[in-house]
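Late entry, evening session. Most of the bench is empty. Finally got around to the prediction I had been postponing all week. Sequence below, unchanged from the version circulated by S.P.
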Amino acid sequence: MSLEGLDVKIIPSRKQISCAIVFLALLVSAALPSDGQGLGTISGTVTDPSGAVVPSSTVTATQPQTGASTEVKTNERGSFVAEMQLSL
């Protein structure tokens, strides 16, 4: 059986993307100043398991302390930047 000529696209699951975003949100919140507020910025690139970029993906960043969230879409290169007012 040959798979030549097949166009297979692997799309990451929402769970995989959500886990990555939560990890990044925690990483950013740990680096904030201790004055109680700050602007958090998360940036990255969404890729599938083969390493190919995933354009037009929705990325949701959620602040665990407040439940506040923001959604952004990846660009044609799979990159995104999410900014959010954070309060600790």
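Two things to note before I forget:
The beta strands are 37-45, 58-62, 69-73, 79-87.
Residues 14-87 form one domain.
Will write this up properly tomorrow.
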